[in-house]
Design a protein that fits this description.
Low-confidence stretches: none
Structural class: mainly alpha
Strand content: under 5%
Oligomer: single chain
Shape: globular
Number of helices: 7
Number of strands: 0
Length: 217
């Protein structure tokens, strides 16, 4: 059951990203697509003129991306492809990279929190609803567009990643401790797997929107 649902969720996420890209082509939002693609590629490189903090943030982001890919590969591949639980070298790699990934997420949360804070412009529909219901003179923001919706969705994905990181980490730690018995360990492991699926979807959505907005800017 877990394998089937996970595969369907990942396929639905990928199909949704592709459909969104085709329905809202970047060329309609930004004329300089070629220049934007170059900026996307440069996003993964540490610029020479970048400050020390900026270089550390980029390095931390690159490390977290590598850890996420390897953790996803070692965690999902044995279960989804072979129907077996993780063991052997994949387990060693998974357990080694997990704390590194957690530390990188903590650093990104501290350094990116202000960048991903919510503002009034992220919810123009809420302002329209409040003006209609309360009849108060609430100032209207600019018209809502694809780019503004993408920014708000990216912020939601970012905070979903940060919130899900806590149960994702605690569940695997609790599953290794004999505090709640065998049944409790099984529940903690199941919680870790399901949380990992939602976490991976949030990462995919955030990464897609980050690349898209980087091209548009």
């Amino acid at each position: 059951m877990f394998e089937t649902i996970t595969i369907l969720v990942f396929l639905a996420t990928i199909v949704g990203i592709v459909v969104h890209w085709l329905a809202y082509p970047v060329s309609s939002e930004c004329p300089g697509v070629g220049r934007g693609m170059i900026r996307v590629l440069s996003m993964l490189l540490i610029e020479q003129r970048a400050s020390t903090l900026g270089a550390l943030k980029k390095l931390c982001y690159i490390v977290s991306v590598i850890c996420f890919l390897l953790l996803g590969l070692t965690g999902f591949y044995p279960l989804l492809v072979h129907g077996e639980h993780i063991s052997g070298w994949p387990m060693i790699i998974h357990a080694t990279l997990a704390p590194i990934f957690a530390i990188c997420l903590a650093i990104l949360a501290l350094t990116w929190a202000s960048q991903y804070r919510f503002v009034k412009a992220d919810c123009p529909w809420l302002q329209k609803l409040l003006r209609r219901v309360t009849r108060l003179p609430i100032p209207a923001e600019d018209a809502e567009g694809p780019c503004k919706c993408a920014v708000a969705t990216q912020k939601i994905a970012f905070w979903a990643i940060m919130v899900l990181a806590l149960p994702l980490t605690l569940s695997i730690v609790l599953s290794m401790l004999p505090l709640f018995g065998t049944h409790g360990q099984e529940i903690a492991m199941a919680a870790h797997r399901w949380t990992a699926v939602v976490f991976a979807v949030a990462v995919l959505v955030h990464t897609y929107l980050a690349v898209r907005l980087r091209i548009v800017q």
